Amino acid sequence: MRSGASPRDVGRLALQALPVLAAEPLYVLVDTAVVGRLGAVPLAGLAVAGVLFAQVTTALNFLSYGTTARSARLHGAGRRSEAVVEGVQATWVALAVGLLVLGVGQLVARPVADALGDGGPVADAAVGWLRIALFGAPLILVTLAGNGWMRGVQDTARPLRYVLAGNAFSAVLCPVLVHVVGWGLEGSAVANVAAQVIVAALFLRALLREGVPLRPRFDLIRAQLSMGRDLILRTAGFQACFLSATAVAARFGASSVAAHQIVLQLWNFQALVLDAVAIAAQALVGAALGAGGADRAKVVGAQVTRYGLWLGIGFGVLFAALYPVLPAVFTADPEILATVPQAWWFFVALQPVAGVVFAIDGVLLGAGDAAFLRTTTLAAALLGFLPLIWISLVAGWGLVGIWTGLAMFMLVRFVAVGLRARSGRWAVTGAVRG
């Protein structure tokens, strides 16, 4: 069967996945708006603690992406119960790793906050928020696991409802605890944990209602952790690039780092949309391969890549047209606005490249080709990005050097995943990738 997925199927899965991807940024946005009224020190403390906490969920997203890949194959093979069992095992991993993160996080919260903060009031504020927020780590990881198996069985509607319920509850509770009850910054952390309890409970209830065995299966857990290792290393490559970019931008002065931050946040915004398309590709490609349809998986992969390309071109045209007005939404500082173009046109030109790369990433993740993605991402970081960015620091190239490095990172990945997609070697059929 060579027929691909309809645009409606891809759109449905992507549109339902998008708000789930945006959940964590929305938590941070609500916290920022509410805590911002407390003053500079609490807001700075939230910024430091929020960055630290975000690294946990980002580094452990294999609980979502890896589980989707494995569950989708089994679902495509008509073995839904076994697909859900993958979710059970991912949930056990989430609970174990989450409790470990909670314990270690309590021990290192102070020294890490001191290192990133000022060692004074800002660090104190960050530690207070972080020690409470860490109790939500096991809950967030359970949510990632739940998203993973539900996407695998192509059920993206329930995760959407669950996450929206949690976000709505947090949005109401946060200002009450912070300002009405008077708990200050810590109140926002309590509101987040309370919302995470609700969302994790909904995912656990959905798992229990499936009626599958709940005992740990250590053979499956080992397989998940093996794939998780590759995905964690891949994520580390991304984090090394973007954290280094911010660190080097800061060396060129406040205007440079502020301009970089504006463009980077817009990049993160469009990445959410492209990632939603990648998630649709994961579910559809995994299901096709699980059903033994290598040709269908290739057709779906080609379709989704075209969608990503057109979406990237659309973003490029949109951001080019918005250049005269959009940067001014973020700042009125003339020096920052004068620096923005150094990064802006790289950002615009990279949109079609990003559209293709994100789409093929989703295809290869759906095929369980995590080892290839790990290797090429690290190679792109070590060979394409990091040399250029540190040379730019020494040579004083500013944001032009930084975004040249980011462009090389994306172009190396573009060539690598493009060649891999064309080779077809990723299209390994079967309920479990051998």
Automatic annotation (TrEMBL):
Its main location: membrane. It comes from the Bacteria. It is a multi-pass membrane protein. It is found in: Membrane. Keywords: Membrane, Transmembrane, Transmembrane helix. Signal peptide: none annotated. The chain crosses the membrane at residues 38-63, 84-109, 129-150, 162-183, 189-208, 231-252, 272-292, 304-323, 343-364, 371-391, 397-416. Belongs to the multi antimicrobial extrusion (MATE) (TC 2.A.66.1) family. PANTHER family: PROTEIN DETOXIFICATION 44, CHLOROPLASTIC (PTHR42893:SF46), PROTEIN DETOXIFICATION 44, CHLOROPLASTIC-RELATED (PTHR42893). This is MATE family efflux transporter. The lineage of its organism: Bacteria, Bacillati, Actinomycetota, Actinomycetes, Pseudonocardiales.
